[in-house]
Amino acid sequence: MSETQTEKKRFKIETSALRAYTMLGALALIWLFFHWQTGGIFMMPRNLSNLMLQTSVTGIIAVGMLMVIVAGQIDLSVGSILGLSGGVAAIVYTDLQWGIYAAIFAAIAVAVIIELFQGALIAYLNIPAFIVTLGGLLAWRGAIKGISQSETVPVADETFKAIGQQYIPPAIGWFIAAIAIIAILYFAVARARAEKSYGLGEGKVGAQILKSLLPIGGIIVFIFVMNSESGVPNPVLILIFVALVGYFITTNTTFGRYLYAIGGNAEAARLSGINNKIQIVKVFALLGALTGIAALIFTARVGSAAPGAGGLKELDAIAACVIGGTSLMGGRGTVFGACLGALIMASLDNGMSLLNVQDYMQELVKGGILVAAVGLDMIGKKS
Amino acid sequence: MKKILEMRNISKEFPGVKALDGVTFDLGEGEFHSLVGENGAGKSTLMKVLSGVYPFGSYGGDIVVAGEVRQFQTVRQAEEAGIAIIFQELSLVKELTVAENIFLGKEPNRFGIINWSEVYQKSSQLLKDLNLPLDPRTKVENLGIGQQQLVEIAKALSHNAKLLVLDEPTAALTESEVETLFEILKDLKARGVGMIYISHKLDEVFMMSDRITVLRDGRTVGTNNAADLDKDKVIALMVGREVGDIFPTTTHELGETALEVKNLTAFDPDVSEKKLVDNVSFHVKKGEVLGISGLMGAGRSELLMTIFGAWRGKHSGEIIIDGQKTPINSPADAIRNGIGFVTEDRKRFGLILEQTIRDNATLACLKQISGKFITDRARETAATREVMRSLHVKASSPMTIAGTLSGGNQQKVVLGKWLLTKPKVLFLDEPTRGIDVGAKQEIYSEINLLAEKGLAIVLVSSELPEVLGLSDRILVLHEGKTTGEFSRSEATPEKVMAAATGESKTLI
Q1: For a FRET experiment, which of A18, A292, B386, B416 has its CA 20 to 30 Å from that of B36?
Q2: Beta bridge partners of B163
C-alpha cells in the first residue's frame, strides 16, 4: 500500500497536463486510424495541409470562445456574426470597391461593435448571455439577409482571396520558425532566471531548455511537412498567431487571470476589486475581433459571401472548447485545449470525407464523440 | 439504557489518507451524545459511514442498529432504519414550500399524481407535533436560516427517525434560534430520540450532552460522561495538548483615527424601504481592534459591505480615511484607499476553490504585485510563499488547489490575500467560522500581531467570547442601529447580549 502511494506521488502529473496528454493521445489515435483506413492518404503532406486549413476558421473562433466560456459566459451568435461581417466585407470590396484595407477594417469593426453591444447588454443589464446571443443568432442572420437581399456576393479578385488561399513561401516559413525557436529558448532561460531570483525551484536553465524541446521539435516537423507541399497556408499562420496571442492573454496577463476569477467565482472576484462588467464586455469584444478575422478568411477561401455563411460555426467553436476540456460553468479551460479540440473536430470531418462516409453518419459520429469526450472527462474526475 | 446504535471498529480510507481508524461509538435511546474533534478529525466521515453516504463495503467494521448488524447501501436504506442526518450545509430546495421539502422524494401519490391535501395535512400535523412554529405553505427561501434548520429537522423526523445526527446545526443560528432549537431537541430527547451532536461550540456541547466522544486524527480519544469533563479537558483531548487561555491578553497602543464612518445608512436592495443599516457612526484607530457584535440580521456584514463599496442597494453616509473625506464607490476604490476585507463565508465570497493558492492570494492586488497588464508569475509565487510562511498555511506549495485545503487553511489564504494588498484598515467578517481550535488560535494571534503593527481592525463575529477576547472596543448593533458601545474593561457578555437583543436601556 505504502509502496504504491510513493509510486503515485512520484508520477503525479497535474490534472490539466494529464488532460492535455490524453487529448494528444486521442488525436494521435484518430490520425492513425484514418491513415490506416485511407491507405496512407490521411497523413500525406497534402492532406495535412488541407486539414490545417479546415481547422483555421473554427480554431480562431474557438480561441475567443474559450475566453468567453472561461469567464462563465457563452456566445451563440458568432456564426451569424461571421456571416454578417463576411457579407459586409464582400459588399465593401466588390460592390463599393473601397479596397482591401477598408474591407478588412469593415469586417472586424462590424463584429467588434456587435459584440460590444451584446457584451454591454449582458454585463450592464444582466440579461443572460445565452438569451442575448440566442437573439443575436437570429437577428444578425436576418441583418445579412436584408443587406445582401439574400444573394451571394462574389469576391472574384485575387487580392482578397489571397487572405484565405495563399501560402507562405517555404523560405519565409523557415525564417518564422527560426524566430519562434529563438523566442522559445529565450523564454525558457528567462523563466529559469526569474525562478532563481525569487528563490523558487532550482532555476536550472538546462531543465527549462529540455522542456522546450518538444515544442521546438513540433515546429520543425510542422514547417517541414507544410513546406513539402506548398508552404504554410495563410489562414493557418493566422490561426497559430491568434492561438499564441490567446495563450499569452490567458496565462500571462491580468485580464486573463480576471477571466478565470470571474468564471470561477464572480462574487469573490468582485469583492477583490475586479470590475467584472468591464472585463465581460472586453472579452466579448475580443471574440468579436476574432470572429471578424475568421469571417475574412472564410469569405476569402470560399471566394464569395453567402447569406447563410457561418451557420452552426458557433456550435463548432463551443464543441471544440468542450472537447478541449473547457468547463461550461466557467473558470476552467485552456487555449491549447480549445485549439486541439478544433483540430480533433476537423480531423473527424476530413477523415470521414476521405472515407466517403455519408453526411448523416458524419453528424452522428461527431455528436457522439462530443458527448463521449465530456463523459470520459467526468469519469476521470470521479476516480 | 437500551442501545440503539453501536459502531464497532469503523475504518475508512481515502487514497493516501486513513480518515477513520478503528473508531468505536454507541448511542442509547433518548441519549444526547456529542462528537467533537478538530476539523479533519473524522466526525463527518463517521456520520457519512453511518448514514449510507459511504455504502457498505467501502469501510471496515460493523454498524449495529437496534441489535442488528446493518449494511446500508444507500442513504434511503439508512433512513428506513430510522437514521436521520442533518448535514452542515442545508439541503433544502429554496423555491419549494416547507411541506414540499418535508415530503421531497416521498410525496404521497397515486400513479405519480401528488395528493396535495395529504402533503399539507400531514406536514402541518408533523410541525404541530414537534411544536415548530412554521406554516407548511411558506416557501423556504422566505425563512431565516434558523427556521430552515427546523424544517430540516422536521424533514428528518417525518419518517419516525429514532436517531438524529446533527452536524454543526447552529453554525448560522442566532442565540435565540439556538435556544429554540435546544428546546425542540430536549423535547425529542424526552420522546426517546437518540441524538449525535457534532459541534465546535463547546458551550452547546455541554448544555445537553449525556456523554461526549472526542475524535482525533480518525481515532477515538475517549468517551466520557459529560459530568466528568469540562471545556478545558475537552479542548486538551481534542488537540492532544493542554491549551492555556486561547485569547492572548495584549493591550494595543492606539494611534490616530484611521477610519471614521458618519451616518451610514444602507437599504435592502430588494425591499427599497427597508433599512438594514440605520444611521451608524463609528471610528477605529490605528492599532485598535474594534469588535462589532450583534445577532444575525443586525446589519453587521451589510455595514462592512457598504463601507467597502460593495453594497448593491441604496446607501448614504460619509467615509473619512486618515482625516480625509473619501468617496468609495467600488471595492477597487476601497482597496486603493487601504481597506482590506476578509469576507464571511470563504467558499462563497472569499475563494475561487478550483484555483491555486497563488491565484487566490494575489487576486486582490494583482496589478500591484504582478504588473499592470502582464503578470509576473514567479514574483507572485514568491509573494504567496512568503505570506503562506508567515500565516503557517499548511499546503505543499503555492500551486495547491485552494478547494483541497482544510477550512482553517482556506481561511488563512483569504487572510493572506488581503494582507498582500497592504491594508491600513482590515475588516474581518466571521474570520473563524467553522475552523478548528488550533487554526482559530493562530488567527487570533495574527489579529493581535497586525494590531501591534498599527493596522486598524474591524472584527465582526457571532461568537461572543471571540469579540470580548480580542476587541479593544465593542460596538453593538441591533436591527441596523447602534445599541451599545463598550470599552474592553466595561464589556461583559451580559451587557453585550442585552444590547444585541435591543433590551439594553443605555441607548446611545
Answers
A1: B416
A2: B83, B194
